[in-house]
Structure to design on (418 residues):
C-alpha cells in the first residue's frame, strides 16, 4: 500500500486525495452502446431476444426454461449441509429483525384546530432483486434484497440471477421466492423494467451488479425505480489504536471482491500505518485478486491531526468504514455502514449482522445510506380540514397563491370560505 504523509508531501497527498474524492460513481460510458442495444432488443422482441441473450451470456442450455421451479429451489436447499442452512437462517432472521425496526410508522399531527396532517405507509407493488452470479455465488445478496422487501409487504418479488449456484437457489427457497429467472446482465434489467409477453415488469429494481448491470439500471431509471448505482467495493479504516493484523485483514477481505476495490487506511500513527502495510503485504501473498486491488487503489494516509483524519474520512464517504470506538460516531457524517471497535470485522456486516450489505459507493454515502426496508415503501402524506380549519389557514394559502399569480388556486380556497 502507498503510505503518504498528508503534511509533508502535500502535493502528492493532495493529488491522491483529489483523485479518490473525485472518483464518483462508476463510469459506464464504455459499455453503454452495448447495453442500449440489449435494452432495445428486449423491449422490441421480448422473450425471443431475452432467450437469445441468456443463451449467449448466461449459459442457458437450449430448451431449458428461464424460470426456476419451486422444486429446484427446494432440492437446492436439501442439498446444502445443515451448517450452511443454519447460517442462512441466522442471517435471514437478523436481516428481518433489522428491517422490521427500520420500517416507517404512520402518524397524524394537528398544527391548528380543524387541521389534521399525517402520513400513511404503503409497499411498492412489485420489485426486482438482482443477484450477481459471476466471480462468486452470492446467496447473502439474495437474502439482503428479498427479506426487507418481504418485511415491507411487497406483493410480487422477482429475482434474476445468471446461472445461479445451488447456494443461491437454496437461499431463494429459504426466503420464500416464488418467481426466479436465470437471467443476468443488462438483459435481466431490461426484462424487469420493460417486461415481456411472459414476464411482467416491476416497479423498482434493486441489487448490485457489474458494469453492464449498473449501466442498464441507470438507463431504465426513467421508466422504473432503482436503488442506486453500484461501483467497486470500498473500505476505509480510520484508527489510532487498532490491531494492525486485524486492520489489514479487513482491507484484504474487501479487496478480494473486485480488482478496483478502494482500500484506504487513515491514521495519525505512522508506526501503525507501516505495520498495517507490512501485514497487508503478508496477507495478500495467497490472495492474488486482493493483491491486485491493493496495488492499484490501496492507500495509507498519515495525517498531522486526528481532526484531519476525520475530515478526510468524511470527504471520501466510503461504502464501509471502521472506527475505534462508539465516540467516533459523533464525527462520522458520510458512510454507507460503520463498524465499531476491534471485534467488528466488516465481513460480519456482509453476512449476518442484519444491516444491509447493499451500500452506496462512489461517494454516494454523502446523500444516502444502504438499502433498507424504506426502499420498498412509499410514505404518502395526508391532509384533512374542517370548515373552521380552512377558515383559519385559507387566507394564508390564498395570499400565497395571489403572490404567485395562480388565481385558480386562490379561487379554489376562497369559494369554500364564503
Amino acid at each position: 500500500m502507498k503510505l503518504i504523509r498528508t503534511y509533508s508531501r502535500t502535493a502528492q497527498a493532495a493529488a491522491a486525495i483529489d483523485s479518490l474524492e473525485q472518483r464518483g460513481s462508476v463510469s459506464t460510458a464504455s459499455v453503454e452502446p452495448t447495453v442500449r442495444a440489449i435494452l432495445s432488443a428486449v423491449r422490441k422482441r421480448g422473450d425471443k431476444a431475452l432467450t437469445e441473450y441468456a443463451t449467449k451470456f448466461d449459459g442457458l442450455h437450449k430448451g431449458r426454461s428461464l424460470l426456476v421451479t419451486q422444486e429446484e429451489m427446494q432440492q437446492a436447499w436439501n442439498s446444502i449441509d445443515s451448517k450452511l442452512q443454519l447460517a442462512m437462517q441466522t442471517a435471514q432472521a437478523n436481516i428481518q429483525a433489522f428491517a422490521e425496526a427500520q420500517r416507517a410508522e404512520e402518524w397524524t399531527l394537528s398544527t391548528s384546530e380543524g387541521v389534521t396532517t399525517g402520513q400513511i405507509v404503503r409497499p411498492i407493488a412489485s420489485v426486482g432483486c438482482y443477484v450477481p452470479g459471476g466471480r462468486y455465488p452470492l446467496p447473502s445478496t439474495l437474502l439482503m434484497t428479498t427479506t426487507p422487501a418481504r418485511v415491507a409487504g411487497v406483493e410480487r418479488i422477482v429475482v434474476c440471477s445468471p446461472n445461479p449456484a445451488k447456494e443461491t437457489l437454496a437461499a431463494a427457497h429459504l426466503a420464500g421466492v416464488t418467481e426466479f429467472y436465470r437471467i443476468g446482465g443488462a438483459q435481466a434489467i431490461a426484462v424487469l423494467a420493460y417486461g415481456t409477453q411472459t414476464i411482467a415488469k416491476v416497479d423498482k429494481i434493486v441489487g448490485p451488479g457489474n458494469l453492464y448491470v449498473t449501466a442498464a439500471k441507470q438507463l431504465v431509471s426513467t421508466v422504473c425505480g432503482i436503488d442506486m448505482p453500484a461501483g467497486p467495493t470500498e473500505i476505509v479504516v480510520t484508527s489510532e489504536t487498532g490491531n494492525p493484523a486485524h486492520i489489514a485483514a479487513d482491507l484484504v477481505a474487501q479487496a478480494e471482491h473486485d480488482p478496483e476495490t478502494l482500500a484506504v487506511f487513515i491514521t495519525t500513527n505512522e508506526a501503525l500505518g507501516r505495520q498495517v502495510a507490512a501485514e497487508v503485504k503478508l496477507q495478500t501473498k495467497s490472495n492474488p485478486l486482493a493483491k491486485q486491488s491493493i496495488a492499484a487503489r490501496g492507500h495509507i494516509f498519515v495525517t498531522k491531526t486526528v481532526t484531519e483524519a476525520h475530515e478526510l474520512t468524511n470527504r471520501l464517504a466510503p461504502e464501509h468504514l471502521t472506527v475505534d470506538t462508539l465516540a467516533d460516531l459523533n464525527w462520522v457524517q458520510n458512510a454507507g455502514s460503520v463498524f465499531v471497535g476491534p471485534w467488528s470485522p466488516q465481513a460480519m456486516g456482509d453476512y449476518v449482522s442484519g444491516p444491509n450489505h447493499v451500500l452506496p459507493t462512489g461517494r454516494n454515502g454523502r446523500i444516502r445510506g444502504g438499502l433498507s426496508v424504506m426502499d420498498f415503501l412509499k410514505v404518502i402524506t395526508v391532509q384533512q380540514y374542517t370548515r373552521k380549519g380552512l377558515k383559519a389557514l385559507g387566507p394564508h394559502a390564498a395570499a400565497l397563491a395571489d403572490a404567485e399569480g395562480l388565481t385558480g388556486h386562490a379561487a379554489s380556497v376562497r369559494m369554500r370560505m364564503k
